[in-house]
Amino acid sequence: PSDMLAGSRRGPVRAALAMCVGSSALGSGALNERSVETAHSFTGRMCAASRLEETRRPDSLFSDPLAYTLAGKEGRAQPMGGWIMVPRTRFGDDFLRDHYTRGARQLVLLGAGFDARAFRMSGLPELRVYEVDQKTTFEVKEPLLTGESLAVASRAAVATEFTRPGEWAAALLASGFDPAVPTVWLAEGLLMYLSAADAADLMKQVGQLSARGSAVFHDAVSAEYLNARVSVAGAPFIGASDEYVNMWRSIGGFGSGYAHDFRAIKVDRARRRIDVDRRWPEATAARCAGQQVVLFVEVEME
Q1: In Å, how far are 31, 256, 299, 301 from 212, measured between CA atoms?
Q2: 45 vs 99, 137, 145, 280, 294, CA distance in Å?
Q3: pTM of the prediction?
Q4: Measured torsion, CA atoms of residues 255, 201, 171, 139, in degrees rounded to the nearest 10
Q5: pLDDT tens across 200-246, in order?
């Protein structure tokens, strides 16, 4: 998310969203339901709607009991799409569980949106969760979570903007985050909405806050996608690169890393899991050059 639209939150932004989901979903309406005020925050409700669709399947790869509520009427009217949400969510879940077994005890959701891992993921009793996103997201989200029981040790909502250098990191520290504790960083559906400068600042801050044993997973798109002028519900893709692993190393100080070509990520409905087809080569800069490639990127602090 970014604050590029903040200056017109109650005017053009809401008008654009109304064209996407219908004006009745944006007003208080009969249900008196509050709506988000930026296109970027709205994409988070779209993602929750896709998690709802997956939860309702008999062969689902995850279950999100809060998805219906968190998506809201506006999100349920326009799901993001299971093609990306199912493998991305499950990949992130598996990534978190794997690193929890290796000692990670903090989870930071960068661009958290309407994620509910703090409520739906069992078996992580010592995990402290920090959700970082725009203020409008939490203004809508927090009241919807009243009375819900956490599945983890704690959860903190950190309202900030990624477009003001250093602000989100300072706010995260003020919320109780401990940079000495190994951390899992999930940035799902974020990097494509950040400028190159803001992405570099994010990598720098994450690196400075990451103890040894910390790890990052995020999805992204190759540089060629910028020529496609992709926009999701009024939120344009402005961030893309063929060099994400190298950027995390050079800017964030991370060690090992791997960029998966999304085509290597396979949903196995019969076994209710995802698999990585190792026959697909890594999505290196040379392989991404001039191609539209969706990426799953993971890096670790060694």
Answers
A1: 48, 12, 12, 5
A2: 27, 9, 14, 32, 21
A3: 0.90
A4: -110
A5: 999 999 999 999 999 999 999 999 999 999 999 999 999 999 999 99
